[in-house]
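In keeping with the milestone schedule agreed at the kick-off meeting, the structural modelling team has produced records for the first pair of proteins. Each record is given below as a sequence line and a structure-token line. The laboratory manager (R.T.) confirmed that both were archived under the project's standard naming scheme.
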Amino acid sequence: MLINWKSRIPGVRKLFDGSVWRGGFLPVPLVSLALLFFFVHPCPAPDFKVPSFPNFFKGRGNETLQEVGRAPTGPGGLCQLPNGDYIISCHQFFGHQYRVMRKSRDGWEPFPNLEMNTPGKGHPVELDSVLGVVNNGNVVWMLDNGRRSGKQPKLVAWDTKKDCLHRIILLNPSVRETSILKNLVLDPNYPFIYISDPADGVESAIIVVNLDTGLSRRVLDGHTSVRSDPAVSIILDGKTVEARRADGKLAKPLSGVSPFALDRKGEWLYYGPRNSTTLHRIKTELLRLPNLPPSTLNANVKGFCPKPVCDSIAIDSKDRIYFSDIGNSAVTYVTPDDDYLEIHPLVMDPRMVWPGGLLFGTDGQLHFFCNQLNRAPIFNGGRNQTSSPYYLFKIRPLPTKRFKRLPDFPTKLPQPLKNQ
């Protein structure tokens, strides 16, 4: 059963709709009077707003947004090795000659090697169309959806310390004709990997991979929580982001389940369609049960909080969720401080064209890329309208101590465009 986040304590949300409350500061006498009026007064709750002090919390501004690199093409995924090196997948929509690349002190180079990135070189393991990349220490897992050349979808793990192939898992039994496997997360407690398959926005699903057996299962297939919302569109560069199919009709590829993250304890998987306004979550223990009836699994999906149109999310140790907010060229977040009811801006910058790949780096900061995906040929009649640089950025996340200041930005963001 889906739970609408908008229905959670609606009266209290309306009562405390002031920026001071969201910042964690409210005079105690005012709280007492407000609660007394709200719960005792027989009339409907008034449109009450506590006074706001816009200068009380000094805004951090964009001065903390740091450029840390420039990718050779639009990335599709991002991870960072223990030594600080970046690994990016080269998004297949840009047709770059390499599939995965590594940024070290010497610059960018094919990862894990040139042969695996060059079809026809005779290597027994060839990378075709990698999007999701994630590392467990020195082992990098690459999610190859095989859509460039019609190859078998697979997981490829490479041990960077031993410089050798760690493992390959074929995913054919769990994919559909429309599948385009995108993001993956590693369970920190159990030998499982969870994969998002946005497919065509309709046949979307989550794939669960058991690393002990090498078997994979497709779950929540076509469920509301993984399907694209047809009423939500993206407007960038003054136009709706759409792709033209072979039959000439317009489509929105990759709009199904895309943002994908586990909480720090690995208890909940948070996810949602790229084109939607709600983030969902489900207990990972349920995903690991192979004989659980689909109806039972579906009933345990929880609608958790609002979200912008986004491709990636990251969760910090205080359970704050950060979004790569595509439509606003921003990184935004929700916080338990206001019961996850409002989306707040962390950073906005015109250089952040289609941000993605959010992750907490080895330095504890929030790292991400901007790949200009809306300017790729598939969205522009076959013409590549991107232009270098493809930025890699990092920014300080929110402070870990309570009652620290929030960024001094507007408290509400523009909502995703709804088709008329």
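The second protein of the pair:
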Amino acid sequence: MKKREIKKLLNKDVPVEKVQQIISDIPLNSIKLKELLIQIFHNTSDLKFIKFSNLTLVYIDNQIDKHELNKNIIGKLQKERTYTIPEIVSNLAVSDLEESNEIQFVVLSILKGSAGVYIEGEKKIILAKIPSENSRSITKPENESQVIGPQIGFNENLSTNVSIIRKYIKTPDLCNELFLFGTRTNTPVSLLYIKGVASEELISRLRKKLRKIKIDGMLDSAVLNQLINDDYLSIFPQMLLTERPDRISDGLLNGKIALIVDGSTMAILCPMSFLEFFHSREDYNVRWPIATFVRLLRIMAMFLSVFFTALYVAALTFHYEIIPQALLVPLGESRSRVPFPPLFEAVLLEFIIELLREAGARLPTKVGQTMGIVGGIVIGTAAVQAGFTSNILIIIVALGALASFTTPSYTMGSLIRIIRFPILFLAGFWGFYGIMFGFCLTLIHLLRLSTLESPYMAPFYPPRLKDWSDSVVRLPFNLTYKRPALTRPRDEQKYDPDETK
């Protein structure tokens, strides 16, 4: 590089973008290197330089392991003598060492927790990876609890999360591809799949989606999930967010693909069908009749949560004739003091329920539980006594709210909470015709959706009878030996059905 270019770059008025654009090699002088790094890092206070005989050590103070720095690097370089690159590599007691002559790579490595060792007059910098492990210990999953099965959840450290997956799946076929997202955050993301099981076509599609993403910051897997959905305008989740490593491992064994974002406790699993959001990993840990009953219960609870209040409003507003005669008298007495139409009454109660739920979720744990219980009892009793609502509607709304909690996936449970309101308004304006219109509109939308360009409503649309054995019901294991066709697996069978008998 020409001297006039170096002078220009070391001028403090030159913007960092210009510095990184022109500079590609390491200056042949420790003073110029120091000035250049100070320029790039905007003179940040935690950028440290330590000068030895013919060496300069550079690192970011809060990104490296201090104990390892003092013991394995500084302790080995304190001798007053001239070092060469081979001597540095042989003396440093660090397992992960690499060399680079590009300033951009050096800057990125320092940001990730490497210490750079520069020898005066050399064109390379030795990078010793000693990042600080500031992550919490592995704990139970907070949002996806289960009675039978592993009690372990992801934490915010990418390497820890990948190592947990490797403890479940001990095979060299488990592939881990690394991507970087965010021009300012440089967030590492791992793409996991099992070679020989996962479809190469699906992997290629996901890679293309990931490479098209241009964003300045990636802070959580939920953001990445929204960026790679097939239909970003749809309210329905098309990929699963889960904090359970066993759920991810089970998906990988079935030919699915996983994404783990550094700094996030949730991993992404795809492709996912609509019914799989109502499955739990615990379904495979119990006997098949229990698992089938629980799955049917969740599906019924979804319909109950979405349509129960709407049916009440439609019946009272337009269709009195369908109400049994024995129920008309108590229903009339319950609504005799209510001055509002059924639609306004139902919307008011649903809104109060959502307020209580949101307040309970945002408050501290102990206070939130008390707030939910006491608030629900006090407000419900006061609303009935004041004549704002009827006793029967309180029971119906409470059952609908309770039913929405049976869904294992938080994103699908949140969707059920939201979709109740348009169905409720359609019932208030057009009765059963409005409910049917809303149901048909939702069904058409679901049939048009795709997940990683695979049908969202599989195995019912298109019909795949072989996959029905593990959909709404779960049959015994010797009848579910095939991997789901949704993932288009290269190895279709999980085990030999004859041997399992």
